[in-house]
């Protein structure tokens, strides 16, 4: 953070998630004659908030910075120091990482303080008062993070003490009810915002189960792993992961990823419409046979006949035949 020069408006860097709360926080700063720039963090498991962020910044004239949290974020997901929330969401460690990155952006753009849309007690894991203050300390931002929606319920921050903002014009919203934010949005003329969903795949039970299984077997999480976890039906045959596309879009995505990674092999039925199947790792005859049976099961081929398939790997290409796997066996292999 920097010292405000005479005759210069104070500047805030707002963390814009794409949700209503962060939009409100940004507008409240603009209404207090604070210069605002914004940063939007995207992760491999983010929702679809980016479009709302871009539209909001365009409408309000806010300069937007985008940042991808990649390898460092995935390491955090795999082994969070503060543990997980309700599923596989490491919200505390994720927030600390975002704040550390935001601090660097703030220094670069010469922002005087950081603003978030956090609401006290809205999220039980990361938005309790003590934890919110712990997070900013861990990130080296103690006293420099303003939360306009709940500021009157929290200790006075440096931007308030320095007169950059008027504390009396800030708010005392708390809890999970969205009515106060929706009322405030109406007052401020904000009409376009997403429904109040979490937006992070890590909070979804089905996806969290898939990620747990992956980490339990693979002991690591890469960008490729993250992409593959979001696509298809997943099966495990011994040490091999098998992913079967569910539709044309997923088939295209799996083919693209396999084309860029030599550790991925593909399998498809020859004479019928069917999925693209990806196999991860070194395969033997038994694994290929089971993967082929799964592939036939999800194709348009007859389920009681031998069907021709093609296998394409980094160092071998072969043809094989299989009939559809039984539902009982399929269930045993399903993740």
Topology, element by element:
Blueprint: E1 11-15, H1 20-31, E2 35-42, H2 50-60, E3 63-68, H3 71-78, H4 91-109, E4 113-115, H5 129-138, E5 145-146, H6 158-161, H7 179-188, H8 205-218, H9 223-229, E6 233-237, E7 240-244, H10 248-260, E8 264-269, E9 277-280, H11 285-297, E10 307-312, E11 317-322, H12 327-333
Parallel strand pairs: 1-2, 1-4, 2-3, 4-5
Antiparallel strand pairs: 6-7, 7-9, 8-9, 8-10, 10-11
Helix pairs in contact: 1-7, 4-5
3D architecture notes:
The chain has helices at 20-31, 50-60, 71-78, 91-109, 129-138, 158-161, 179-188, 205-218, 223-229, 248-260, 285-297, 327-333, and strands spanning 11-15, 35-42, 63-68, 113-115, 145-146, 233-237, 240-244, 264-269, 277-280, 307-312, 317-322. The mean pLDDT is 94. The chain is elongated. Helix content is 38%, strand content 17%. The longest helix has 19 residues, at 91-109. With 335 residues, it is of the alpha/beta class. The chain has two domains: 11-188, Rossmann fold (3-Layer(aba) Sandwich), CATH 3.40.50; 231-333, no CATH class.
Shape: elongated
CATH superfamily of the largest domain: HUPs
Q: What is the number of E strands?
A: 11
Provide the domain count.
2
How far is the first residue's CA from the last residue's CA?
Answer: 47 Å
* CATH-defined topology of the largest domain: Rossmann fold
Number of helices: 12
How big a fraction of the residues is strand? 15-25%
The largest sheet, given as strand count, sense and whether it forms a barrel, is: 6 strands, antiparallel
Strand order of the largest sheet: 6-7-9-8-10-11
Rg estimate, integer Å: 25 Å
CATH architecture name of the largest domain: 3-Layer(aba) Sandwich
Structural class: alpha/beta
**What's the helix-strand series?**
EHEHEHHEHEHHHHEEHEEHEEH
């Amino acid at each position: 953070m920097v010292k405000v020069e005479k005759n210069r408006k104070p500047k805030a860097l707002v963390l814009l998630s794409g949700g209503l709360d962060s939009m409100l926080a940004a507008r409240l700063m603009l209404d207090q004659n604070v210069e605002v720039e914004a940063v939007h963090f995207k992760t491999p498991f983010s929702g679809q908030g980016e479009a709302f962020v871009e539209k909001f910044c365009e409408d309000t004239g806010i300069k937007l910075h985008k940042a991808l949290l990649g390898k460092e974020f995935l390491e955090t997901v795999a082994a969070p120091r503060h543990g997980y929330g309700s599923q596989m969401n490491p919200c505390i460690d994720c927030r600390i990482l975002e704040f550390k990155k935001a601090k660097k952006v703030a220094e670069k753009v010469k922002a005087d303080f950081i603003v978030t849309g956090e609401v006290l007690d809205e999220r039980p894991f990361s938005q309790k008062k003590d934890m919110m203050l712990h997070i900013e300390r861990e990130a080296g931002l103690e006293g420099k993070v303003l939360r306009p929606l709940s500021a009157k319920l929290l200790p006075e921050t440096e931007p308030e003490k320095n007169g950059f903002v008027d504390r009396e014009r800030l708010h005392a919203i708390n809890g999970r009810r969205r009515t106060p934010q929706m009322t405030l949005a109406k007052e401020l003329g904000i009409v376009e915002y997403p429904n109040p969903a979490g937006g992070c795949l890590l909070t979804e039970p089905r996806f969290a189960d898939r990620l747990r299984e992956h980490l339990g077997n693979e002991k690591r999480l890469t960008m490729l792993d993250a992409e593959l976890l979001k696509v298809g039906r997943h099966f495990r045959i011994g040490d091999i992961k098998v992913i079967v596309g569910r539709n044309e879009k997923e088939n295209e995505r799996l083919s693209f990823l396999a084309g860029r990674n030599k550790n991925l092999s593909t399998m498809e039925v020859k004479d019928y419409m069917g999925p693209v199947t990806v196999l991860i790792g070194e395969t033997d005859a038994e694994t290929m046979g089971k993967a082929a049976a799964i592939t036939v099961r999800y194709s348009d081929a007859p389920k009681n006949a031998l069907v021709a398939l093609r296998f394409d790997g980094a160092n071998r290409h072969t043809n094989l035949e299989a009939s559809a796997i039984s539902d009982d066996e399929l269930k045993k292999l399903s993740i």
